[in-house]
Design a protein that fits this description.
Number of helices of chain A: 0
Low-confidence stretches of chain A: none
Number of strands of chain A: 9
Largest interface: A-B, 22 and 26 residues
Strand content of chain B: over 45%
Helix content of chain A: under 10%
Strand order of the largest sheet of chain A: 1-9-8-3-4
Distance between the termini of chain B: 37 Å
Radius of gyration of chain B: 13 Å
Largest sheet of chain B: 7 strands, mixed
Largest sheet of chain A: 5 strands, mixed
Mean pLDDT of chain B: 92
Order of helices and strands of chain A: EEEEEEEEE
Low-confidence stretches of chain B: none
Oligomer: heterodimer
Radius of gyration of chain A: 13 Å
Chain lengths: 111, 115
Amino acid sequence: DAKTTQPPSMDCAEGRAANLPCNHSTISGNEYVYWYRQIHSQGPQYIIHGLKNNETNEMASLIITEDRKSSTLILPHATLRDTAVYYCIVSGKSNDYKLSFGAGTTVTVRA
Amino acid sequence: NAGVMQNPRHLVRRRGQEARLRCSPMKGHSHVYWYRQLPEEGLKFMVYLQKENIIDESGMPKERFSAEFPKEGPSILRIQQVVRGDSAAYFCASSPTINPFYEQYFGPGTRLTVT
């Protein structure tokens, strides 16, 4: 019962913005959208999360559509070190400490 | 502030042996989670612990697996009588509180190989 849908892979040129889409059409009103990434052979790393407003931090920006059924993670200036698997996760209910990592999007940044 | 620490980073065990994986959460964090990542798969939740308490072990296999988080010392994931199917990366995460805003901070993982 996948809560999110992401493309399996995408390429991005170094220095350009990478826009990673995520569909979460069954999201409920109290659920947040989280993004994590996993660089090869490392533990997942938290990137950003949001409820309904757009969010920005030092790593990325998160754009959530008005109906909250989809979102986009934006890496403004991709570097080779951003090559990783990116996971979009919907969570927020009282017992949703169980982060559910699907297949994610494998992002390859090319020089 | 040191991050989540896990040791060993790599562990090789023969079938039938025991594996002990350790996790030291970030300073100030009292909530620990264990996840398993099988080859070519996403991480799967195993267990959630607070100090001296198992809160949720719904993702733990029914046999051979156990976890603890004692009052003092690291959290331990213990696998008895390992089999080849236990070969995986085991990740520990910690968080300071439980609410919709929390993040989980992950360690580097322990890669278990069963021969």
